[in-house]
Design a protein that fits this description.
By secondary structure, the protein is an alpha/beta fold. The protein has 11 helices and 11 strands.
């Protein structure tokens, strides 16, 4: 980000610093916590958060992926400057959404968190999108209870032999009506939520699968506010965003870029008119170190929100308080570990 853009954001009150005074959350209990790779912290300590980003993603497939496909030192060298860049912009927490069998590396995230001083949150769960090629073999034969037990154990004992625990669940389903396998994934997530209090973030897209998942959660006795509708921008009908938000679901618009500003403003203005900004999450879905490409390929920075989206929101009349609701209050509430039972 260039100096003139940073100066503009400061003058506009949109560049939040890490020294900003604490905010009070209407939802919060004093003991509300989230889980980072360095352990639990108070939810209000998340500060400004990017709730859907990636460090490294490997699409080689569940049957071929392994940690020896990348060199952690090289990944750290490539990615660390991008984390330091957003720390300067006031970001305190980054939610890393790469699931198991797609490149989740808890040790890598731990090192990057230590070196960047960015709080990083990782996940448990399985990703069924992309026609199930990132699901391990046991996911096809295990029932929902058995899958849930695997995820619960990671929360209780740590990930991949470490003491690092997940702060949420990440699952993925394909567009359209849910397959039986994907119904099993969301059912397993509901079971695991009831045991752990971890929020469920589901790669979804268009609304049909989102509402089907929400119905399964309801049947399982889990409130809709335990569910993040990931990639909700994939739904063209803004009324569906309104309906989901009214039910308590988190509506995640998570591919902020220069090219998405106009569309996102349309969605946000409608949600603002309906007094539903308290159910909105914003992020980039950026990063993406790719092990199969030289030096990880093109790595997309985490700054478009600050360079393009926030100035456009201010021009459309969004207040600093409304922006802080979406970037601070909402993430802290969404990722608070608590059992949200119907």
């Amino acid at each position: 980000m260039n100096h003139s853009r940073r100066k503009f954001l400061k003058q506009a009150g949109l560049l939040f610093t890490t020294s900003a005074s604490p905010i009070s959350f209407e939802f919060a209990l004093a003991k509300a916590e989230v889980m980072t790779v360095n352990g639990p912290i108070k939810a209000k300590a998340m500060g400004m958060s990017l709730i859907h980003e990636h460090i490294l993603v490997d699409f080689i497939g569940a049957d071929k992926i392994s940690f020896d496909r990348w060199d952690r030192a090289q990944v750290v060298k490539k990615v660390l400057p991008y984390l330091l860049e957003v720390r300067e912009l006031g970001v305190k927490t980054l939610v890393e959404c790469t699931p198991a069998y797609l490149g989740r590396d808890a040790r890598l995230l731990d090192e990057l968190s230590d070196r960047s001083e960015i709080q990083i949150i990782t996940n448990t769960g399985y990703y069924g999108a992309r026609e199930n090629q990132h699901l391990p073999k046991h996911a096809f034969k295990d029932d929902a209870e058995q899958l849930a037990e695997r995820w619960i154990k990671e929360f209780e004992n740590g990930i991949d032999g470490t003491s690092i625990k997940p702060g949420f669940m990440k699952i993925g389903v394909d567009t359209g009506t849910l397959s039986d396998l994907h119904r099993k994934l969301i059912t397993a997530a509901a079971i695991a939520h009831k045991a752990t209090g971890l929020t469920i973030a589901s790669h979804t897209g268009a609304s049909l699968a989102a509402f089907e998942q929400m119905e399964i959660l309801k049947e399982q006795g889990v409130q809709h506010n335990a569910f993040i509708w990931v990639h909700a921008q994939g739904e063209d009908d803004v009324q569906k965003h309104v309906e989901a938000a009214r039910l308590g679901t988190w509506v995640s618009l998570d591919y902020v870029s220069e090219g998405t500003v106009e569309r996102y403003l349309e969605i946000l203005q409608r949600l603002k008119a309906e007094k539903l900004l308290h159910r909105v999450l914003l992020s980039h879905d950026a990063g993406w170190y790719k092990p199969e490409e030289t030096n990880g390929g093109d790595f997309r920075s985490y700054t478009d929100l600050f360079e393009f989206m926030l100035p456009a929101m201010q021009e459309k009349g969004f207040s600093k308080a409304e922006i802080k609701t979406m970037l601070e209050n909402n993430p802290a509430e969404a990722f608070t570990i608590t059992k949200r039972l119907a």
